Amino acid sequence: MTAVTPALVKELRDRTGLGMMECKKALGEANGDVDLAIENLRKVSGLKAAKKEGRTAADGVVAVKVAPDNSYGVIVEVNSETDFVARDAGFLAFVDSVLDKAFTTKQADVAAVMAGELEAAREALVQKIGEKISVRRISLVEGGVVGGYLHLNNRIAVLVQLEGGNEETAKDVAMHVAAVNPTVVSSDQMPAEVVEKEKEIIRAQPDMAGKPAEIVEKMIGGRISKFLKESSLVDQPFVKNPEQTIAQYAKAASATVKNFVRLEVGEGIEVAVVDFAAEVAAQVAASKA
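Now predict its structure.
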């Protein structure tokens, strides 16, 4: 009998994408024969789910839950491959389960939340629906007054943390964040490398050509100031009352904005654009080779 070594388990995991324990079990049943283990796995559902892991899941939903006393809140993003699945009742029930566990445990680590029953539930859902499903991000905001907002058919979710104020104020600011998408709470939080990159872009603009260096620097300073105000939450005109900035709105409610988290479904995920005609042509050419 061949021993099931860590190297064999790793090989099977690399070739199938399945979990460590499932691979170890399959190798034990196949007497350490990787190819036989794969053959056996093809006869059961596990490998079917794993084959989908290489596909891109850039659709899905976000969900948010805030404690009744507004002391903390949680956001999760769960991805699917299509918006059709994102509306499926079984998929949405799974999202609720993930959200509830993250909320109950105050846990933002995806692996920790998914360990055990939820991972099994995810794999079962993949089998049933036939698409890749993944829990991508979980965010926890705790302390002060926390308010949440869910926007645009569960595609944008926001948590806002205030010092002072109340639930209504926090929720209004969260709604603004969902609509306007600021980069930072205040301009002093903007990373220096972002500011420098913006300066490079401004310096290269056509209207800077031929101007004296001191004029260029003055113009850059003005445009950077505008960029920071437009990007900073507290300096933005409040969407419900553009006569007020967010800072002014919060101050009127005896509050200060401390933090926010905004998750939008699929942001930052690169989706490959497949040229179907080219793909077919390549397959035809390969068959003639």
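The chain is about 50% helix and 20% strand.
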